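Here is the promised in-class demo. Please do not try to memorize the tokens; focus on the logic of going from shape to residues.
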């Protein structure tokens, strides 16, 4: 229980820091300056964000990833709602490409992060035509459409970092 509370406090601090950074013009920070690290592939080491989200018609998910592990990076981000565990999921297993799932619909992303170096990735999606974009290290590497078009992201879910729902 103490570990869970510590993780939640860390994630809340991280959210506050992100808000601070978004409002300021402070200098760029390296990935090592962030506090959430998942050094082992386990089914118990993950972060859970308890902030309730409203219904969404678009989203952007950005994160720093570093992996040299096989098979793949696993599930660095997932958002599940009652009745739909895969409302939003970023996943990679084995030699498969990184995939974005929205409402269980899948798009393969042209990202590559398994070289043991830090990479900043951002994924954007909008309900209008199911349009998505994938960025790695500041460069747009791919776009697509028809990924769960016109599907609003349901409210009241749970965000999990480092594991599928």
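The designed amino acids, position by position:
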């Amino acid at each position: 229980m103490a570990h869970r509370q510590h993780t939640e406090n860390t994630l809340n601090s991280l959210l506050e820091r992100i808000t601070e950074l978004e409002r300021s013009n402070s200098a760029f920070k390296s990935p090592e300056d962030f506090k959430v690290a998942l050094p082992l592939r386990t089914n118990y080491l993950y972060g859970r964000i308890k902030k309730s989200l409203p219904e969404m018609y678009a989203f952007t998910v950005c994160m720093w990833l570093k992996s040299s592990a096989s098979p793949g990076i696993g599930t660095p981000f997932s958002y599940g709602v009652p009745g739909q565990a895969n409302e939003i999921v970023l996943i990679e297993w084995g030699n498969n490409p990184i995939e974005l799932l929205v409402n269980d619909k899948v798009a393969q992303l042209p990202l590559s992060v398994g070289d043991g170096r830090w990479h900043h990735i951002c994924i954007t999606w909008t309900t209008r035509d199911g349009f998505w974009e994938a960025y790695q290290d500041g460069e747009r590497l791919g776009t697509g459409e028809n990924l769960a078009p016109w599907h609003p992201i349901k409210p009241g879910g749970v965000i999990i970092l480092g594991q599928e729902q």
